[in-house]
Structure formats: C-alpha cells, structure tokens
Amino acid sequence: MTGDPRICLVTPPAIRLGDFTDAIGAVLDATDVACVRLDLATRDEDRVLRAADALRETCHARDVALVVTDHVRLVEPHGLDGVHLSSTALSCRNARAELGRDRIIGVFCGNSRHAGLIAGEQGADYVAFGPVTPSKLGDGSVAGTELFEWWSEMIEVPSAADGVDTAADAARLANCADFLFLGNGIWEAADPLRAALAIRSGLERDR
After folding, report:
1. What secondary structure letter does DSSP report for 47?
2. How much is the mean pLDDT over the chain?
3. Residues 6 or more apart in contact with residue 191 via CB below 8 angstroms
C-alpha cells in the first residue's frame, strides 16, 4: 500500500430511505467512492431488502458497488455486489461457495491478525479491522495503526479501516490501509457532504 486508500461509505444503523438516498447520492456525485455498505441494525429482512433495492439503483447509476452486511441470501437475487461479514464466526468459505468468485466478500476481524489471516485463507477480498478509534461498541478494543502497517507490509489481501470518522483518522491510516470505511461520523455531521469532502481533501494533502 503506497498512500492512496479508497473511500467506502457505511450507512447509519437506521435510515429514512428517500432522505438518505438523496444524501448519499450527493456524496457519490461529489467524490470518488469505491463502495457503499448497507449496514442496518434491524434484522427485519424485508426492511433490509427494500433499502438494498433503493440503494442499488443509487449506487449502480454511479458505477459504485453495493455490499450488504451479513445477508448473503440477498446478494444474488437483488443484484448486489457482495457481502460484508460482521463476524469471523460467519464462514467466509461458505459465503464464497454460495456467491462464487465474482462477488465481493469482506470480513470484519476486529483487531485480530489471526482472524484476518484466516479470512484471507478462506477467500476474503478484503479484511476489515476496527474500530480505529475508541468506541463504546464491542469490548472497547481498538485496531491501532501498527496493525495496518504490519498487514500492509506482510499480507497481500487488502485491508479496510472500519469506523473512520475524521480527516485525522484518515490521514493517519492513509499509507497503510487500502480502504477507509467512513462511519456514522459523517452522517451525524450537520453537512455530511462537507464532512466526506474534508476527509477526501485530507487524503489528497497527505500524498
């Protein structure tokens, strides 16, 4: 990795479809985004399905990939580009067998090198480490910069930094992560588009 990570957007845990597709469309129109991850808190498959269909139209109209968290069975029938597995307990190998080689599969591995190595061996297209700043979620563990530095030096499978909320976070990880997943920080900002552009500008200054 040599210093030009791709930005990915993660949806908030709950969204109002019409308002959110407008908001995310504005961000996609204004800056380069590799993919969008649909990451709703609800386990109601019908709500996830409706969100997936709406966001697919928004993303694919702009040639941006859309992946969904955990709902492997929605990927093929709804024309999604892949799945993000939120736990190493969910088998990447099984997802790959179901989806084939053409779909994206990412695996969240917390701050565990070992989990990342296993995911890579099972066919993950990327491994996500995080959160990259202290969080109330999970057990409070943080994926530090040194983990991404080690991974970029030793492993070919791309890494993703999960939970990037600020330009400072992005700049710190710019030279050692392949993808930056922007979390709730931008959607909670008064102007999400401005927040996303600030992160993009910070990366460009850091080159």
Report:
1. H
2. 93
3. none
